[in-house]
Write a structure and sequence with these properties.
The chain is an alpha+beta fold. The chain is 32% helix and 21% strand. Strand 8 (159-164) and strand 9 (167-172) form a beta hairpin. The radius of gyration is 22 Å and the shape is globular. The relative contact order is 0.17.
Length: 362
């Protein structure tokens, strides 16, 4: 059996010091001025918070910023000059990501490389090494096991750190993870068996109680057969159309592209985050809006995640992080909706719940 690798808490601090001294950007969960935990660019090892619960926002904005320039343009003598933006980035490291957030990034690789390869997305992906910390089981809003993940999931990560007394067991998951460990080999120690690591993972899974039992196949089937249903009008009464759910979601990725003038003769084409939950998202130039009410907009979000995306890419567009339920000011609860949809679908042969697997969606 291959010897285990150990990273002590002291050596983790040393690793962070090494990276900062080398000018490498470190992104990890840290406490903001309001006391909430968010993924931030760290300036010191002491800022890293690994036991503060699920960060308020997901890791998505690390790869798909809320706003970013695509290119600059300038009108000059009857012509248009284009100034491209860089599509390659300096190496950086994410440390302490939640398994659901790393999985969300990997899920979005599908759509970002679908009919057009998004150079900015994959440039950041190539530059980033992702170290996750195994989850302790989450809270009552988490339902990762319902969508084929779990507190011990490894999908989308390069290295997994499993908490044990005095530090972490290190699980290398990818070639990028191997290169990272080799570059910082003096910070890692070879250890014998570390039974506490498997005990942590087992206990985390036993503590996790998903608020939705989880049969995505049944939900997908029902959504495909019931476009019009009174349920949407009922649940949408709680929806404010604010888009908070999409802002914190690891996998919502809608955006708008606009030309913003920076002066009389020059400007920037910019990509800005958007959401299907706002009233103007689908307004046509004619003024017609095919999703004219909030019921239609809420239906679209659920269908996109559990029927449209699975039909195109073979996986749900959700990692069960529970952020949408925590963030919603109106109390719209996605697991509650999914539970009702599954009940409406009824039992059908083959509609068994996804088996929660560490590597990804079954």
């Amino acid at each position: 059996m291959k010897p285990a690798t150990m990273l002590s808490s002291t050596q983790l601090d040393g690793l962070l010091h090494d990276l900062l001294a080398a000018g490498v950007e470190i992104i990890g969960p840290a406490r903001g001025r309001d006391g909430r935990i968010d993924y931030q660019s760290l300036t010191s090892p002491e800022a890293l918070v690994l036991d503060g619960g699920v960060p308020r926002r997901s890791l998505k904005s690390t790869f798909l910023p809320a706003t970013e320039p695509l290119f600059a343009w300038r009108l000059k003598r009857g012509d248009v000059e284009i100034e491209s933006v860089p599509t390659s980035f300096a190496p950086r490291v994410v440390i302490g990501a939640r398994p659901c957030d790393a999985a969300g990034v990997e899920v979005l690789d599908r759509v970002m490389g679908w009919d057009y390869r998004d150079e900015l997305w994959f440039g950041r992906r190539a530059a980033t090494t992702v170290l996750i910390v195994a989850c302790d089981g989450g809270d009552r809003s988490c339902f990762c096991t319902s969508v084929g993940l779990g507190p011990d999931a490894t999908r989308g990560a390069d290295v997994r750190l499993v908490p044990v007394p005095g530090g972490f067991r290190v699980d290398i998951l990818s070639e990028k993870g191997e290169r990272f460990a080799a570059m910082h080999a003096d910070r890692f120690a070879t250890a014998g068996e570390i039974p506490e690591a498997e005990a942590f993972l087992s206990q985390a899974r036993s503590r996790h109680v998903a608020p939705w039992g989880g049969s995505p196949a049944a939900v997908e089937r029902w959504l495909g057969e019931h476009f019009e249903h009174e349920l949407w009008g009922e649940v949408a009464l709680r929806c404010h159309g604010c888009g908070a759910c999409a802002a914190v979601c690891p996998t919502c990725h809608c955006f708008d592209i606009v030309d913003e003038p920076d002066g009389v003769m020059h400007g920037t084409r910019r990509r800005n985050a958007d959401t299907c939950q706002t009233a103007r998202f689908t307004v046509h130039a004619s003024g017609h809006n095919p999703r004219a009410d909030q019921a239609a907009r809420l239906r679209q979000r659920v269908r996109h995640k559990f029927q449209i995306y699975p039909s195109r890419f073979g996986q749900v567009l959700c990692t069960g992080c529970g952020r949408c339920s925590r963030a919603c000011p109106g109390g719209v609860d996605l697991p509650e909706i999914l539970t009702r949809l599954e009940a409406l679908a009824g039992p059908t042969a083959g509609d068994t719940p996804l088996t929660s697997v560490a590597g990804g969606v079954a």
